Amino acid sequence: MRDRGIIWMGLALFLVFLTLPAWHNLSARVSAKGPQPVPPAGQKQCVAPVEYMRTSHMRLLLDWRDSVVRRGAQDYTSPDGRHFAMSLTNTCLRECHSAKADFCDRCHNYEAVAVPCWDCHMDSKTLLGSVK
Amino acid sequence: MTRLLSASATVLAIALAAALAGSLEGVRTVLAVAVPYAAFAVLVLGLSWRVVRWSLAPVPFRIPTVCGQQKSLPWIASSRLESPHTTAGVIGRMALEILAFRSLFRNTGSRLERGPRLVYREARWLWLAALLFHWSLLVILLRHLRLLVEPVPTLALVLDRLDGFFQVGAPVVYLSDGLILVSLTYLLQRRVRNPQVRYISLFTDYFALVLLGAIAVSGMWMRYFARADTVAIKQFAIGLTVFRPAVPANLGDWFFVHLALVATLAAYLPFSKLVHLGGVFLSPTRNLANNNRMKRHLNPWNYPVKVHTYQEWEQEFHDKMAAAGLPLERP
Ligand code: HEM
Does the ipTM surpass 0.85? Predict the structure, then answer.
């Protein structure tokens, strides 16, 4: 008994699966240009250094939430001495990143991150304008 | 114990060397580009070489090591999965073996109790831990596709949502991360604590476990504590897959540790016991139908044997035998 044909087919199938990411990216001409989030016009400095924000903004947001909801502290002092109200919609979106689709969403779609915050917090432009 | 220590020391040395190399301007590119490509090539070529070698080995006969009634007379119920006689049955048995570790589920342990009395009992922790470990590993690997493919495949997306179902913290804690840590810890402590298993455990047994554990821990550390710039990492990873590698400066030490350990695993896999990844499909006691009595299995290496039957022999010596008065079949 020899089952060479089947074994070789199985091996070939496995190798195709193993290299599928490369085949896909090559055939779809995917480039390494990244999500290219659009920074807000006219602003120079985020609430924390950009290297920190790039990797750990989700930590900062949860710190803000805990601070507001659990300790009732609303005021945040940035490392360069400016003051901000700790608020996802009012500070992050309304003051700077109103173009959420071109900023937050680009990165999150690129990395398949599910951000559950918008189930409750407002993000759409019309609502941002009407609520003070 | 020294084997465990030397295995851990080896893994630690690789991790430290990677962190050092990642922080040195010139060496970084070698570690980030040459090492992954080389390791992947070793994995693909090594695995192919082993599987092709296996495929050339003769399988002369069915090996009916089975745990059920063989198919015989129509009124005797046969065990279709435990002793399959059809290809479909064999596929079922292989699926159970590969997806659910069926034969490990039958594991038993024995203990000498007072009396003295030998007691056998079912021993399923090994099965449970092994199953949890392998499934977590698969889920983690498939989830990693989000860092490798653009746009992110639906499979990785769905797994990501399911795995982070409880939305604990940000970034969310994955269930599979906890499970792989728990199961690896169990598998390692089993080798250390059980005297019989410790006696037969070799360097490679510990090395595989410690290496996988270090990969998982470095990945988790990067995700939950050190925080790496995963956007830059994805750009780098895509660059590798389309053969236009570019190494950003901000990948972070922990990423290099993770990458170097994964490269070690990939290159080590074809030449170690981890090659059971391919070998499990070729287990002769699992993948051959038990149809020895139903089908005639001819040895393909049978050469034509020259035979001289009694009839021919008698014909040849007929006259001499008749003269000597010997009895003849055809007088
Ligand atoms: C055997 C292969 C691998 C194993 C077992 C493994 C394991 C892990 C684990 C357990 C984590 C923790 C977070 C999670 O579960 O997603 C992780 C994170 C990570 N791994 Fe891997 N990994 C492997 C290969 C790779 C490769 C080849 C890369 C390079 C592209 C990579 C890049 C990363 C990155 C960037 C993270 C951080 C993800 C985040 O912060 O969300 N891993 N890895």
Answer: yes
